[in-house]
Amino acid sequence: MIPFSRPHIDQEVIDEVVATLRSGWITTGPRTKAFEERLVRYCGCKAVVAVSSWTMGMQVFLHWWGIGPGDEVIVPAYTYCATANVIVRAGATPVMVDINPTDFNVSVDAIARAITGRTKAVIAVDVAGMPCNYPAIHNVVAAAGARRLFRPASAQQESLGRIVVIGDAAHSLGATVAEVRTGALCDMTCFSFHAVKNLTTAEGGALCFNLPAAFDHEAIYREFCALVLHGQDVDAMAKSQRRTWRYDVKEPGFKCNMTDLHAALGLVELGRYQGNLDRRRDIFAAYDAAFQAEGWALLPPSVSGTRVSSCHVYQLRVRGATEEQRDAIIQAIYDQGVAVNVHFIPLPMLTAYRKRDYTISDYPESWEKYHNEISLPVYCDLTDDQVQTVVEAVKRAVREILGEGCQGPS
To answer: Right CATH number for 273-402 from 3.30.10.20, 3.40.50.1980, 3.30.990.10, 3.90.1150.10?
Structure first.
């Protein structure tokens, strides 16, 4: 069976994890700090705080930013549930908007129409690794009309003076807009390093801060290091350096610090990440070449203007297929020993959000992209022979379900 995703675990990774175990530092320590510093340099942002997951990192940020009951946060309807779940858990309301006709990312025009006096944030999602049109999103929140509507409810919001732009970059480490990498494209960007991501720490994430110059990023870093450790102002590493046990907790915090065991994986993977990206782009190119002559195949963009994807997921769409036919095609691919997936079930189709009165009919582009989408395997250990096996399995499955005459318009 060709798996849908496989982490790149080799002897170099194993050696680094073993060295961490032998070092005496298995919780937050020197490797976590080194990983944060490497991410700052790689992304070009102002500060990074490594955390145990994207979800908890974002939860802490929303709390710190002062988002809560009565507030609205604009999100795309087409994303994984975590993007909206953190808003609900903060007590705020997710305001869902539709996506672009040309890709799977949030519509900037829809964002502009959704802004009200209760809007405190926009969370833009880089679906499958393609970065959103962040310059246009920044223009929307900086426009005079949006600024007039803005009602700050915390010191941080007052300092910024506008809606905060948050990047959900769970898929897009290494993606760029006008040669600027994700992590430096928004006020705050949150990465995921889950096992299936381009770069994995098994579980983990990182908050990347790139707020305007009025914000003290060194102070933000110190504050977040405390917030992710119950609010405690001195961690184990600092205690060992200061040779004192005493600490304080100024405000109740969370518990979601990254450990050195996880950071060990991240340090190795970040050191060779360009090779990972290059391999993924080669796989995208091979899929493009294999499917571009098929009339039924709608190919995902990996470059759009100045935006360049991290090639996390290849979102192939089958022109003319119903949702039921798409599901049957997926099963036929599985039956040939190839694992594929769907990214994603739109939020309004999930029970948690249907019962909150969201409905998919309000988001026609999200439905149009979802009902015939199949995500193909993309990872650096996928061989050229396996890529061809995937291609043939998909073509056979489409012919089996849609028939020999399924070419459709070319």
So the answer is: 3.90.1150.10
